[in-house]
Design goal:
Layout: H1 3-11, E1 28-37, H2 43-59, E2 67-74, E3 81-87, E4 90-93, H3 105-119, E5 122-130, E6 140-141, E7 151-152, E8 172-175, E9 180-182, H4 184-198, E10 202-208, H5 215-221, E11 225-230, H6 242-251, H7 257-272, E12 280-285, H8 289-309, H9 311-324, E13 333-335, H10 336-352, H11 354-358, H12 366-390, E14 391-396, E15 407-409, H13 428-432, H14 435-441
Parallel strand pairs: 1-2, 1-5, 5-10, 10-11
Antiparallel strand pairs: 2-3, 3-4, 6-7, 8-9, 11-12, 12-14, 13-15
Helix pairs in contact: 1-2, 2-6, 3-4, 6-7, 8-9, 8-12, 9-10, 10-12
């Protein structure tokens, strides 16, 4: 839609400015903050999404008092942070700030949720990060600049192009004016503080952004969030279908965190299934993430044991599994479930050819090899079950139908971007598992 038209339609919904929202006496069921970092080329889409939020409330007035839909919005060429409450009568400006977003992304996010918790108390809280996203890799710092929030980057193409070979550095909440983003480590710290403010875990962390449904991202925030809703693949610039999502919530405002996370995925799938064949979205139960990560580490340990017996054979199987797995448009990210499926296939073939392989090792080690391979296959099957339970709802278009809702960082040796990104070593997943050592040896 034409940007000027979007802005005109939106402004017609704004009731008045200078209004200061007071704390509600009535405790509502849901307070949802859509944290819109639109100081970039997604600005026009922000207007369209906000318009859809207003439409949902205008068409579903009966339960509107049970849901607080709140917007914090950074716009390009505007040195102010805009805050609005969406109502059945339109937008109400409340609590806007004279300072611009993007200077201290981590603290600004915490401050926004502090404001929401104080001004709009509710039984459940959801935070939607609206912006560009690019997974578990983070930006590099400017040389000689002692500021943990300022990062350098270079783009050789449009942000609206699905990420592939275009982007050097990763994160979320990109601000083109400030040249900042929120790192995954900053996101974890912010979620920890938000949980402290709320006195409980954040019910839903939504990522209306590309490439954020990763096991590493889930593991990063699992202690402070109940459900993560995000996409393995790139998202269309239009983002989430907010009118449909909010219409469903307003019809049943007492729905649980799990049900709302599933509703978001269902609405997304219905909205895009006839339009794009490569879209994905998933809802992840973070209470089950730790189990998935621990089981994955057991698989790595068994592979490591077999590699000590027949290193070349094991490495060949792992690389074949990686190449056959369902990869995202950014080729360093691969669907975790499909990688496990391919790994299982390769190791079934190993069992079938075990006599030939075992002949290469001493007789005293044959028993260990057979036992390790049998245990490995059992571990993989159990991990697939754990993954299926952790992903409580997923959608994948026809061109990426093998995607099952959660991706994994595995840079591919065939591509120029195959070097392990320096920021990856700082992730909780890298520190708590053998994954970095594993992908260093098997690429």
């Amino acid at each position: 839609m034409n940007k000027a038209l979007c802005r005109g339609l939106l402004l017609s919904f704004v009731l008045y400015s200078g209004f200061v929202c007071m704390s509600y006496a009535q405790r509502v069921t849901w307070s949802i903050l859509c944290y819109i970092q639109a100081d970039n080329n997604l600005d026009a889409q922000a207007y369209a999404n906000i318009r859809d939020m207003v439409e949902a409330f205008k068409k579903n007035k009966s339960n509107a008092s049970y849901v607080n839909m709140i917007i914090q919005w950074d716009q390009p060429r505007n040195n102010k942070t805009w805050r609005y409450l969406v109502t059945s009568s339109g937008l109400v400006e409340c609590g806007s700030l004279s300072t611009e977003m993007g200077i201290r992304p981590e603290q600004e996010l915490i401050d926004a949720m502090q404001w929401v918790a104080t001004s709009f108390p509710a039984e459940h809280y959801a935070l939607i990060l609206w912006n560009h996203g690019s997974g578990i890799e983070d930006y590099k710092q400017f040389k000689g600049v002692d500021n943990p929030f300022i990062y350098s980057y270079s783009l050789t193409g449009s942000w609206l192009t699905p990420p592939g070979f275009l982007l050097d550095d990763r994160g979320i909440l990109y601000d083109d004016t400030q040249k900042t983003c929120l790192t995954n480590q900053g996101l974890a710290r912010a979620c920890k503080e938000i949980a402290r403010i709320l006195g409980k875990k954040l019910d839903i962390l939504g990522m209306d952004a590309c490439l954020m449904a990763m096991v590493e991202v889930a593991y990063q925030v699992q202690d402070w969030v109940d459900y993560l809703v995000a996409s393995e693949e790139s998202e269309p610039a239009e983002g989430w279908p907010y009118e449909s999502i909010l219409a469903n919530l307003l019809k049943n405002p007492t729905m649980s965190s799990k049900v709302l996370s599933q509703v978001i995925v269902n609405s997304y799938g219905i909205f895009y299934h006839k339009r794009f064949s490569w879209c994905t979205l998933s809802a992840i139960d973070l209470a089950l993430c730790d189990r998935v990560v621990k089981q994955f580490n057991r698989i790595l340990q068994k592979l490591e044991s077999n590699a000590r017996l027949t290193p070349k054979d094991v490495k060949d199987k792992i690389i074949k599994a990686r190449r056959a797995a369902c990869a995202m448009s950014y080729n360093s990210y691969v669907d975790m479930y499909s990688f496990l499926q391919e790994l299982e296939k390769q190791n079934r073939r190993v069992v079938a050819k075990s006599a030939k392989i075992i002949d290469r090792v001493s007789s005293s080690r044959k028993k260990s090899y057979k036992k390790n391979t049998s245990t490995l296959l059992n571990y993989i099957r159990l991990e697939k079950k754990y993954l299926a339970q952790m992903v409580v709802r997923s959608y994948a278009g026809t061109k990426i139908k093998r995607a099952r809702g959660c991706s994994l960082y595995y840079p591919h040796v065939r591509y120029s971007s195959s070097a392990i990104h320096s920021s990856y070593y700082e992730t909780r997943f890298a520190k708590d598992t053998k994954w970095v050592s594993f992908i260093t040896k098997n690429r």
